[in-house]
Design brief:
about 45% helix; about 270 residues; alpha+beta
Length: about 270
């Protein structure tokens, strides 16, 4: 069924300010850090949604797998503050699985997380609705340089990402490099419905999701269905049902942060 992958630029200081510090205070019964931070944000900020998410993540058991719990909240919260990139199925985790030498760019989560959040059992993506690897700011710059100047690295990434998705990933690397930030890989923060982008959903702030990766996914999916069925794009939108299955999700809707719907027509309507 594949993975909806997103890449979130964030610095270690932003991790602390946006997520770790207010979350730790909440878990200790102190809402003042969170409330003061929210009050400092502008009118365009999704105050209520951010508060709801933070309060939800504060209830999670630190003994549970962090990549699907406390750590998974980090890229979701990061998406309230900075642009992030989406690609369908193109994960750097999968690059490392195929080519172990590419693991040199990964920064272990154990070196990044505060002591009260356990490191994942495996930094690489294993399931849907989870975090993947983290690439710190120095390794972001190293990977960006090697992507442009190392023929073997470029060849590996083109093979695993494809040329179009690699352009999106490179944009994410450049964005992170420009701000001395690292890059978090995550799954299903953004879930794209390729036959009707307006039905896509997002756990984070969808306004900060760059649409280019979703448009690539849409074009590929439509081309595959056209070739298989002979349908027009309008017929596909009307008759083809897109369904994801066989992934691990929370047991009830109440267990999941609310997704943000209804903004995609404006976002993905851009040319």
């Amino acid at each position: 069924m594949g993975f909806d992958i997103s890449y979130h630029p964030i610095s270690k200081s932003q991790m602390e300010e946006w997520y770790f510090a207010p979350l730790k205070a909440l878990r200790d019964g102190d809402e003042s850090v969170l409330n003061a931070f929210v009050e400092s944000q502008g009118e365009e900020f999704f105050h209520e949604k951010y508060l709801d998410h933070m309060k939800y993540f504060a209830t999670l058991d630190a003994e549970d797998r962090s990549e699907k719990g406390l750590l998974y909240g980090l890229p979701i919260i990061g998406g309230f503050f900075r642009d992030y990139q989406y690609v369908r199925g193109a994960a750097f985790s999968f690059v490392i699985e195929r080519y172990s030498e590419m693991d040199r760019y990964r920064t272990p989560w154990s070196e990044v997380l505060p002591s009260w959040i356990p490191a994942p059992g495996n930094d690489l993506i294993e399931e849907n609705y989870s975090t993947g690897i983290f690439i710190d700011s120095e390794h972001v710059k190293e990977l960006l340089n090697d992507l442009d100047n190392n023929e073997e690295v470029h060849k590996i990434l083109v093979e695993l990402f494809g040329a179009d998705n690699l352009d999106v990933f490179r944009f994410a690397l450049q964005d992170a490099a420009n701000t001395d930030s690292g890059l978090i890989e995550a799954t299903e923060v953004m879930e794209v419905q390729p036959f009707d982008l307006n039905k896509s959903t997002c756990y984070s702030d969808i306004r900060f999701c760059d649409p280019r990766g979703a448009l690539i996914y849409r074009d590929v999916a439509l081309a595959q269905v056209r070739e298989a069925t002979g349908m027009t794009d309008d017929e596909i939108a009307e008759n083809v049902v897109y369904q994801k299955s066989n992934y691990d999700i929370p047991d009830t809707e109440a267990d999941k942060p609310d997704k943000k719907r209804g903004l995609l027509s404006k976002l993905f309507g851009k040319k």
